[in-house]
Input
Amino acid sequence: MRHGPRRETRKRRGATLVEFAVVLPLLLAILMGIIEFGWVFMVRQTLTNAAREGCRTAVLKASTEDDVSNRVREVMDPLGYEEGTVWTMEATPIADEIQTVTVSAPIERISITGGYILTGDDYSISGTCTMRKEGVLGAGDEGES
Output
């Protein structure tokens, strides 16, 4: 008895479906990993930019700690993360000659998968910038920008 081309086509379709079912989870895992790393890299760049902008504000002669905090908030706002719960900022006292601003966030709070792919004990990503103060404040410089 001869099997027609119709039966062979059904077998090929079944084999294709089984192969797809085996490969699909692997492809989805790779795709989610790429998306996750891309997102975390973007957030890391934003943290670095926020630290840099905060530090640029901190080195100005008449800047205040509120000015630095506000500038960092302006850069971080487009991400939509709340300050204090997702990201934090640390800065050296404004009177120091060398200004350092660090903006950090725990990985499980910023990752798309909630730390499922990228995980670790107290692992956080951060951006840090250090610059030298522009000048020393004189007695009449306090109100100038």
Remarks:
- Helices lie at 5-58, 65-76, 107-110.
- The chain has one domain: 5-132.
